[in-house]
Amino acid sequence: MDVGIGLGNTLLEMAPGTLVVWARRAEARGFSSLATIGRVAWPGYEEFVALSAAAAVTERIGLLTDIALVPTYDAARLAKLTASLDAISGGRFTLGVGVGARPDDYAVTGVDFGERGRRLDRQLEVLHESWAGRPALGPSTSFGPPPTMGRIPILFGGDPVRAGRRAARWEGGFTIGGAPPEAAAGMVAAFRESYASAGGSGNPRVVCLSYFGLGDEAESLRQLRAYYAFTGDRAEMIAAGAARSADGVRRRVEAYREMGVDELVFSPSIPVADEVDRLAEIVFGT
Predict the structure, then answer these.
(1) 10 Cβ contact partners less than 8 Å away, ≥ 6 residues apart
(2) Which residue ranges in the chain fall short of pLDDT 70?
(3) In sequence order, which residues have a C-beta less than 8 Å from that of residue 141 and are 6 or more positions away?
(4) pTM, entire model
(5) Beta-bridge partner residues of 197
(6) How many Cα atoms within 13 Å fall on the side-chain side of residue 225?
Protein backbone atom coordinates (compact mmCIF):
# COMPACT_ATOMS: atom_id res chain seq x y z
CA MET A 1 0.00 0.00 0.00
CA ASP A 2 1.27 3.45 -0.92
CA VAL A 3 1.14 6.27 1.62
CA GLY A 4 0.49 9.81 0.46
CA ILE A 5 0.03 13.09 2.28
CA GLY A 6 -2.35 16.00 1.93
CA LEU A 7 -1.03 19.36 0.79
CA GLY A 8 -3.04 21.27 3.40
CA ASN A 9 -4.59 23.73 0.97
CA THR A 10 -7.73 24.16 3.10
CA LEU A 11 -5.93 24.71 6.41
CA LEU A 12 -6.52 28.09 8.04
CA GLU A 13 -3.42 30.33 8.18
CA MET A 14 -1.47 28.05 5.83
CA ALA A 15 1.30 30.34 4.51
CA PRO A 16 1.81 30.23 0.73
CA GLY A 17 5.52 29.59 1.15
CA THR A 18 4.72 26.63 3.38
CA LEU A 19 2.81 24.95 0.55
CA VAL A 20 5.96 24.94 -1.58
CA VAL A 21 8.20 23.72 1.25
CA TRP A 22 5.59 21.09 2.09
CA ALA A 23 5.56 19.75 -1.47
CA ARG A 24 9.34 19.51 -1.66
CA ARG A 25 9.60 17.76 1.70
CA ALA A 26 6.81 15.32 0.85
CA GLU A 27 8.65 14.20 -2.26
CA ALA A 28 12.03 14.03 -0.51
CA ARG A 29 10.58 11.94 2.34
CA GLY A 30 9.07 9.35 0.00
CA PHE A 31 5.32 9.98 0.02
CA SER A 32 3.49 8.63 -3.00
CA SER A 33 1.09 11.52 -3.59
CA LEU A 34 0.21 15.07 -2.63
CA ALA A 35 -3.55 15.51 -2.29
CA THR A 36 -5.77 18.58 -2.11
CA ILE A 37 -9.27 19.10 -0.75
CA GLY A 38 -11.73 21.06 -2.88
CA ARG A 39 -13.84 23.88 -1.46
CA VAL A 40 -15.15 27.17 -2.82
CA ALA A 41 -16.83 28.96 0.11
CA TRP A 42 -13.83 28.57 2.40
CA PRO A 43 -10.64 30.66 2.91
CA GLY A 44 -8.19 28.13 1.47
CA TYR A 45 -6.12 27.78 -1.71
CA GLU A 46 -7.78 26.68 -4.95
CA GLU A 47 -6.78 23.07 -5.54
CA PHE A 48 -5.53 23.33 -9.12
CA VAL A 49 -3.43 26.37 -8.27
CA ALA A 50 -1.96 24.59 -5.24
CA LEU A 51 -1.15 21.46 -7.23
CA SER A 52 0.41 23.51 -10.04
CA ALA A 53 2.71 25.14 -7.49
CA ALA A 54 3.59 21.68 -6.16
CA ALA A 55 4.21 20.35 -9.67
CA ALA A 56 6.69 23.15 -10.35
CA VAL A 57 8.94 22.20 -7.43
CA THR A 58 8.71 18.38 -7.62
CA GLU A 59 9.54 15.69 -10.17
CA ARG A 60 8.23 12.33 -8.95
CA ILE A 61 5.37 12.60 -6.47
CA GLY A 62 1.79 12.08 -7.67
CA LEU A 63 -0.77 14.89 -7.58
CA LEU A 64 -4.38 14.22 -6.62
CA THR A 65 -7.52 16.31 -6.15
CA ASP A 66 -9.26 14.54 -3.27
CA ILE A 67 -11.81 15.70 -4.22
CA ALA A 68 -12.54 18.47 -6.71
CA LEU A 69 -16.15 19.65 -6.59
CA VAL A 70 -16.60 19.21 -10.33
CA PRO A 71 -20.16 20.58 -10.58
CA THR A 72 -18.97 23.97 -9.30
CA TYR A 73 -16.75 24.32 -12.38
CA ASP A 74 -17.58 25.08 -15.98
CA ALA A 75 -16.94 21.85 -17.90
CA ALA A 76 -14.85 23.39 -20.69
CA ARG A 77 -12.61 25.29 -18.29
CA LEU A 78 -12.23 22.21 -16.10
CA ALA A 79 -11.16 20.23 -19.16
CA LYS A 80 -8.52 22.87 -19.82
CA LEU A 81 -7.38 23.00 -16.18
CA THR A 82 -7.00 19.25 -15.88
CA ALA A 83 -5.22 18.83 -19.21
CA SER A 84 -2.87 21.70 -18.36
CA LEU A 85 -1.96 20.30 -14.94
CA ASP A 86 -1.43 16.86 -16.43
CA ALA A 87 0.97 18.31 -19.01
CA ILE A 88 2.82 20.59 -16.58
CA SER A 89 3.34 17.71 -14.13
CA GLY A 90 4.48 15.23 -16.77
CA GLY A 91 1.50 12.93 -16.30
CA ARG A 92 1.55 12.81 -12.49
CA PHE A 93 -2.00 14.11 -12.03
CA THR A 94 -5.06 12.09 -10.97
CA LEU A 95 -8.46 13.78 -10.93
CA GLY A 96 -10.49 12.85 -7.85
CA VAL A 97 -14.06 14.07 -8.34
CA GLY A 98 -17.21 14.37 -6.27
CA VAL A 99 -20.22 16.55 -5.59
CA GLY A 100 -19.71 17.43 -1.92
CA ALA A 101 -22.31 18.01 0.80
CA ARG A 102 -22.09 21.75 1.50
CA PRO A 103 -24.80 23.91 -0.12
CA ASP A 104 -22.72 27.08 0.31
CA ASP A 105 -20.19 25.92 -2.30
CA TYR A 106 -23.04 25.80 -4.80
CA ALA A 107 -24.78 28.98 -3.69
CA VAL A 108 -21.67 31.09 -4.32
CA THR A 109 -21.07 29.55 -7.77
CA GLY A 110 -24.69 29.82 -8.89
CA VAL A 111 -25.13 26.08 -9.37
CA ASP A 112 -28.24 24.20 -8.29
CA PHE A 113 -27.25 22.04 -5.30
CA GLY A 114 -30.01 19.52 -6.07
CA GLU A 115 -28.77 19.05 -9.64
CA ARG A 116 -25.12 18.46 -8.78
CA GLY A 117 -25.11 14.70 -9.45
CA ARG A 118 -26.73 15.01 -12.86
CA ARG A 119 -24.47 17.94 -13.70
CA LEU A 120 -21.41 15.83 -12.82
CA ASP A 121 -22.49 13.08 -15.20
CA ARG A 122 -22.89 15.56 -18.05
CA GLN A 123 -19.50 17.08 -17.28
CA LEU A 124 -17.79 13.69 -17.32
CA GLU A 125 -18.88 13.32 -20.95
CA VAL A 126 -17.37 16.71 -21.83
CA LEU A 127 -14.11 15.98 -19.99
CA HIS A 128 -13.49 12.64 -21.62
CA GLU A 129 -14.40 13.92 -25.08
CA SER A 130 -12.02 16.84 -24.70
CA TRP A 131 -9.18 14.65 -23.35
CA ALA A 132 -9.68 12.39 -26.38
CA GLY A 133 -9.43 15.37 -28.75
CA ARG A 134 -13.15 15.35 -29.53
CA PRO A 135 -14.63 18.37 -27.74
CA ALA A 136 -18.36 18.01 -27.28
CA LEU A 137 -19.27 21.68 -27.12
CA GLY A 138 -18.59 22.92 -30.64
CA PRO A 139 -14.91 23.79 -31.25
CA SER A 140 -12.91 21.60 -33.58
CA THR A 141 -10.03 21.11 -31.13
CA SER A 142 -9.76 19.99 -27.50
CA PHE A 143 -9.74 22.49 -24.65
CA GLY A 144 -6.17 21.78 -23.59
CA PRO A 145 -2.99 19.86 -24.40
CA PRO A 146 -3.39 16.11 -25.03
CA PRO A 147 -3.13 13.97 -21.89
CA THR A 148 0.35 12.58 -21.30
CA MET A 149 -0.88 8.99 -21.08
CA GLY A 150 -3.82 9.32 -23.46
CA ARG A 151 -6.30 9.97 -20.65
CA ILE A 152 -6.28 11.44 -17.17
CA PRO A 153 -6.76 8.88 -14.35
CA ILE A 154 -9.93 9.51 -12.41
CA LEU A 155 -11.28 8.58 -8.96
CA PHE A 156 -14.85 8.98 -7.75
CA GLY A 157 -15.85 10.00 -4.23
CA GLY A 158 -19.12 10.05 -2.37
CA ASP A 159 -21.78 7.34 -2.30
CA PRO A 160 -20.00 4.03 -3.06
CA VAL A 161 -22.80 2.61 -5.19
CA ARG A 162 -22.95 5.63 -7.48
CA ALA A 163 -19.15 5.82 -7.48
CA GLY A 164 -18.99 2.18 -8.55
CA ARG A 165 -21.28 2.79 -11.52
CA ARG A 166 -19.33 5.86 -12.61
CA ALA A 167 -16.00 4.09 -12.17
CA ALA A 168 -17.19 1.21 -14.35
CA ARG A 169 -18.39 3.66 -17.01
CA TRP A 170 -15.19 5.70 -17.06
CA GLU A 171 -12.58 3.10 -16.04
CA GLY A 172 -11.92 4.90 -12.78
CA GLY A 173 -11.45 4.13 -9.11
CA PHE A 174 -12.79 5.13 -5.71
CA THR A 175 -11.69 7.60 -3.05
CA ILE A 176 -13.03 7.82 0.51
CA GLY A 177 -12.65 11.02 2.49
CA GLY A 178 -12.13 10.87 6.23
CA ALA A 179 -14.07 7.72 7.13
CA PRO A 180 -12.64 5.60 9.98
CA PRO A 181 -11.31 2.17 8.94
CA GLU A 182 -14.39 0.26 10.10
CA ALA A 183 -16.70 2.49 8.05
CA ALA A 184 -14.34 2.61 5.08
CA ALA A 185 -14.27 -1.18 4.86
CA GLY A 186 -18.01 -1.30 4.23
CA MET A 187 -17.79 1.48 1.67
CA VAL A 188 -15.00 -0.28 -0.21
CA ALA A 189 -17.02 -3.50 -0.31
CA ALA A 190 -20.12 -1.65 -1.57
CA PHE A 191 -18.08 0.14 -4.22
CA ARG A 192 -16.49 -3.07 -5.51
CA GLU A 193 -19.87 -4.82 -5.68
CA SER A 194 -21.41 -1.89 -7.55
CA TYR A 195 -18.41 -1.68 -9.88
CA ALA A 196 -18.65 -5.36 -10.78
CA SER A 197 -22.43 -5.22 -11.21
CA ALA A 198 -22.05 -2.29 -13.62
CA GLY A 199 -19.65 -4.27 -15.80
CA GLY A 200 -16.35 -2.98 -14.46
CA SER A 201 -13.33 -5.18 -14.99
CA GLY A 202 -10.01 -5.58 -13.22
CA ASN A 203 -9.12 -4.12 -9.83
CA PRO A 204 -10.02 -0.41 -9.64
CA ARG A 205 -7.76 1.81 -7.59
CA VAL A 206 -9.03 2.60 -4.08
CA VAL A 207 -7.69 5.54 -2.05
CA CYS A 208 -8.62 6.42 1.54
CA LEU A 209 -8.03 9.69 3.40
CA SER A 210 -7.31 9.84 7.14
CA TYR A 211 -6.61 12.97 9.20
CA PHE A 212 -3.51 13.38 11.35
CA GLY A 213 -1.94 16.01 13.60
CA LEU A 214 1.37 15.26 15.32
CA GLY A 215 2.41 18.62 16.71
CA ASP A 216 0.02 21.04 18.42
CA GLU A 217 -3.05 19.03 19.43
CA ALA A 218 -5.08 22.14 20.24
CA GLU A 219 -4.39 23.54 16.78
CA SER A 220 -5.30 20.26 15.14
CA LEU A 221 -8.62 20.20 16.97
CA ARG A 222 -9.32 23.84 16.15
CA GLN A 223 -8.74 23.33 12.44
CA LEU A 224 -10.95 20.25 12.12
CA ARG A 225 -13.72 21.68 14.29
CA ALA A 226 -13.82 24.79 12.11
CA TYR A 227 -13.78 22.90 8.83
CA TYR A 228 -16.55 20.51 9.85
CA ALA A 229 -18.64 22.97 11.85
CA PHE A 230 -21.44 22.64 9.30
CA THR A 231 -22.00 19.03 10.48
CA GLY A 232 -23.01 20.14 13.98
CA ASP A 233 -22.26 17.63 16.73
CA ARG A 234 -20.48 15.34 14.27
CA ALA A 235 -17.64 17.87 13.96
CA GLU A 236 -16.34 16.94 17.41
CA MET A 237 -16.25 13.25 16.50
CA ILE A 238 -14.30 13.97 13.31
CA ALA A 239 -11.87 16.26 15.11
CA ALA A 240 -11.26 13.74 17.89
CA GLY A 241 -10.73 10.93 15.38
CA ALA A 242 -7.50 12.24 13.83
CA ALA A 243 -4.32 10.22 14.44
CA ARG A 244 -2.20 12.22 16.91
CA SER A 245 0.47 9.75 18.02
CA ALA A 246 2.98 7.39 16.45
CA ASP A 247 0.92 4.41 17.56
CA GLY A 248 -2.21 5.99 16.16
CA VAL A 249 -0.60 6.51 12.78
CA ARG A 250 0.78 2.97 12.70
CA ARG A 251 -2.62 1.52 13.58
CA ARG A 252 -4.22 3.44 10.71
CA VAL A 253 -1.62 2.21 8.27
CA GLU A 254 -2.12 -1.39 9.35
CA ALA A 255 -5.91 -1.16 9.29
CA TYR A 256 -6.06 0.22 5.76
CA ARG A 257 -3.38 -2.17 4.56
CA GLU A 258 -5.42 -5.12 5.82
CA MET A 259 -8.43 -3.67 4.01
CA GLY A 260 -6.54 -3.99 0.74
CA VAL A 261 -6.68 -0.35 -0.37
CA ASP A 262 -4.08 0.89 -2.84
CA GLU A 263 -3.17 4.17 -1.15
CA LEU A 264 -3.72 5.82 2.20
CA VAL A 265 -3.48 9.62 2.21
CA PHE A 266 -2.82 11.26 5.57
CA SER A 267 -4.47 14.68 5.44
CA PRO A 268 -2.93 17.30 7.77
CA SER A 269 -4.64 19.40 10.41
CA ILE A 270 -1.68 21.60 11.41
CA PRO A 271 -0.25 24.14 8.89
CA VAL A 272 3.43 23.58 9.74
CA ALA A 273 5.81 21.85 7.31
CA ASP A 274 7.46 19.91 10.14
CA GLU A 275 4.34 17.75 10.10
CA VAL A 276 5.65 16.18 6.88
CA ASP A 277 8.84 15.08 8.62
CA ARG A 278 7.03 13.87 11.74
CA LEU A 279 4.73 11.68 9.66
CA ALA A 280 7.55 10.34 7.47
CA GLU A 281 9.57 9.27 10.51
CA ILE A 282 6.66 7.20 11.75
CA VAL A 283 5.52 5.72 8.43
CA PHE A 284 8.88 5.15 6.73
CA GLY A 285 11.25 5.16 9.69
CA THR A 286 13.42 7.87 8.14
Answers:
(1) 36, 37, 39, 42, 44, 45, 227
(2) 135-141
(3) 133, 135
(4) 0.95
(5) none
(6) 9
Q: Which of 122, 123, 121, 51 is nearest to 87 (CA)?
A: 51
Q: Which of 105, 40, 38 is nearest to 67 (CA)?
A: 38
pLDDT tens-digit series, residues 16-32? 999 999 999 999 999 99
For the chain, the domains span 2-283
| CATH number belonging to the domain at 2-283, selected among 3.20.20.30, 3.60.10.10, 2.30.30.40, 3.30.470.20 | 3.20.20.30
